[in-house]
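Re: that chain you flagged

S.,

Sorry for the slow reply, it's been a week of failed gels. I finally had a moment to sit down with the sequence you sent. For the record, here it is as I used it:
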Amino acid sequence: MIHAPVKTQPIFEIQNVDVYYGKSRAVRDVTLNIPANHITAFIGPSGCGKSTLLRCLNRTNDLIPGAAVKGQIRYRGIDLYGENIEPVAVRRKVGMVFQQPNPFPKTIYDNIAFAVRVNYPGSKLDEIVETSLRRAALWDEVKDKLKESGMSLSGGQQQRLCIARAIALKPDVILMDEPCSALDPIATLRIEELMAELKQDYTIVIVTHNMQQAARISDYTAFFNAEALEGGKRVGYLVEVDETKTIFSSPQDQLTLDYVNGRFG
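Prediction finished late last night. Pasting the structure tokens below so you have them in one place:
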């Protein structure tokens, strides 16, 4: 496992992390720093633990029966899995955008306003809705139909609505689990442009199977692989992490070189 020094202050410090689902270990001994206000991409073949590790960063794995995290994950110096840490509070600071756009079956306006009402009573909802939609590069497209269903939007618009919904809760970090895999190339480009803008104010961690996307948008890339175990099970592990330009041009590990050159995966 190869670690290049992160040249900026890390927002997450992941140390010797194992993730289990019941008795099965899904991720093995990951140590990794994620820098603030950059885009970090997790790449690797299916089953290598990318999404599993991503979900650990806002404790979404807590919602999966039998899931357990060992080791330490620190967020701005605080142990995310400490005894006094409330998972719901973690998810307000570390937002999540999923693979399939998942707007609420509500109006465009209420997709943004609903969670704000619950988490920040008394907020100026009109202002927050407009600001969030602007930040998600969606305002001009929906400003005249805020009372229409969020489900009526195109796939790319729905995904930007989900990003706006995450932004509305004033997160520090936005996690994205293959956010473009269900989108066409034009919608994908809009999301990539949006991520480049958002990293000025947010830390973004993205899981992607699209190596070209990782090369285009990320500042750092972590390559994961999976080891086959007895009984057909697999355990994911971190092979190498470095600046993206290094991972794609001159990685230190032969496995990384083989993967980015398309020899497996």
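What I noticed first: The chain has one domain: 2-102+174-260.

Talk soon,
D.
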